[in-house]
């Protein structure tokens, strides 16, 4: 069964982290949803997939956090309100 998470955090270099880590790994893992850089530091992700895949994705994000890139990460359940059509999109 698929579930959705809303993941929010601050990043030192959000554009670099967004392209190199988030977009690349979300697509490789087959996650559907969106990611958006809200300002110069804040990033919001809506990620939908199986629990196992989302756990792996969160592990990847936490590894970035250990390197000091991410701060103030918040993870909460998210009710899917639209069809992401099986893709992961970067909103700009």
Notes on the protein architecture:
The chain has helices at 14-29, 51-66, and strands at 2-11, 32-37, 42-50, 70-77, 88-91. By secondary structure, it is an alpha+beta fold. It has a single domain (2-82), classed as 2-Layer Sandwich (Alpha-Beta Plaits). It has a five-stranded mixed sheet with strand order 4-1-3-2-5, with helices on one face. A hairpin with a 4-residue loop joins strand 2 (32-37) and strand 3 (42-50). Helix 1 packs antiparallel against helix 2. The model has no long low-confidence stretch (mean pLDDT 85).
Radius of gyration: 12 Å
Question: Oligomeric form of this entry?
Answer: single chain
Largest sheet: 5 strands, mixed
Record field, number of beta strands: 5
Strand order of the largest sheet: 4-1-3-2-5
CATH-defined superfamily? Ribosomal protein S10
Total DSSP helices: 2
From the structure above, extract its key features.
2 helices, Alpha-Beta Plaits, 5-stranded mixed beta sheet, 92 residues, alpha+beta
């Amino acid at each position: 069964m698929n579930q959705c998470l809303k993941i929010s955090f601050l990043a030192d270099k959000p554009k670099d982290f967004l392209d190199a880590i988030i977009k690349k790994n979300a697509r490789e893992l087959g996650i559907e949803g969106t990611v958006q850089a809200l300002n110069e530091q804040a990033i919001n992700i809506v990620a939908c997939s199986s629990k196992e895949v989302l756990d792996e994705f969160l592990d990847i994000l936490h590894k970035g956090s250990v390197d000091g890139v991410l701060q103030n990460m918040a993870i909460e359940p998210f009710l899917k309100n639209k069809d992401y059509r099986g893709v992961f999109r970067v909103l700009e």
